[in-house]
Amino acid sequence: MHVRSRGSSSLHPVTSRSRRGLLPTLAPLCVGAAIVVGAVNAQEDETEVRAIVVEAIEGMNEELQAVAGRYRALVTSEDREFDGDGAITEESRVEGEMVPVDGASFRRRLAIDGQPLTEEQQAREAEREAAFRERLRRLRAGEIEPRRNENAIEFNEELVSRYDLTLEDDEVLRRRPSYRIAFAPRDGDLPVRKPMDRALNKARGRIWIDRETREVARIEFELIERVRLWWGLVGTIHQFRGSMDRGPVLDGIWANLQEENYGDIRFFFSRSRQASLRRWRDYEWTERQPAQNASAAGDPGAAGGGAR
């Protein structure tokens, strides 16, 4: 991975590479020394910035997952579909809540398009929650394996290694000092182990990392070119961009505040242009004692607890 530093945002003091007034006979020695010092600082910056980014993304949501069955939060989901001219053809808004169910976090729908759930919708929610409880029971009993999403992004060092990093500047984000770091795909062939990797290898953006806690505070990303699925036979991702914002919500534990994305995707003979917005708010504890079966409760997605 290559890490560049720009402006005054370097993690180390800037060393001047020339001084006026030095004797001409000392100039070559000074230039040589400056090159060595600059190389050392660049190597130190690369190691430090890379470590900060890896630590931040690997730790995302670890604390929140550990208390998955002990908090509640409200969630608003807004979805829009567009035609080729950008006009909205369909939109929906769902109000819901993240609630503890048998020690895991479950997203329950409360209202759709400003209206309370109908009896039929309430019945479907009850069935979905019952299925969630049953799957949790079977997971904890070892009867089934957790669900694996082949297109899920794994936030780890391998992901970071795909990108060149540029430490752009220090920035105050939501009244908190942060590092602002740009990322772009490295040159050369990048690994493709699953379909999602083709998109990751063509993404660029920025990541804000809180200086005090080393938590990810914001991520912005976009595709820099089209991504063909199975050589374009299955489909093409024409555009995809998005952002995620996080902050401290429960006694210093960081969690999602907002996610936003837009995609223009062809799948076989159908083309979809969709935008989505998710907002989380009003996090609160439901109980503070350690939850039972914390390891099984830490991944609600493995039991299918998500909802739009």
Q: Report strand %.
A: 35-45%
Query: Number of folding domains?
Result: 1
- The helicity comes to 10-25%
Order of helices and strands: EHHEEEEHHEEHEEEEEEH
Number of helices: 6
Radius of gyration, in Å, reads 24 Å
Q: What characteristic shape results from the CA principal axes?
A: globular
Number of strands: 13
Overall mean pLDDT: 82
- Report the sheet with the most strands, covering strand number, pairing sense and barrel closure: 13 strands, mixed
Distance between the termini: 37 Å
Low-confidence stretches: 1-10, 12-44, 291-300
Category by helix and strand content: alpha+beta
Strand and helix map with partners:
Elements: E1 3-5, H1 27-58, H2 62-66, E2 71-82, E3 88-101, E4 104-112, E5 115-116, H3 119-140, H4 157-160, E6 163-173, E7 176-185, H5 195-200, E8 203-210, E9 216-223, E10 227-229, E11 235-250, E12 253-267, E13 270-285, H6 294-297
Parallel strand pairs: 1-6
Antiparallel strand pairs: 2-3, 2-13, 3-4, 4-5, 6-7, 7-8, 8-9, 9-11, 10-11, 11-12, 12-13
How would you sum up this structure, described in words?
It is a single chain. By secondary structure, the protein is of the alpha+beta class. It has one domain (56-303). 24% of the residues lie in helices and 41% in strands. Strands 1, 2, 3, 4, 5, 6, 7, 8, 9, 10, 11, 12 and 13 form a 13-stranded mixed β-sheet that branches.
Q: Keywords, please?
A:
single chain, 308 residues, alpha+beta, 24% helix, globular, disordered N terminus
Quick structural gist:
The protein has one domain.
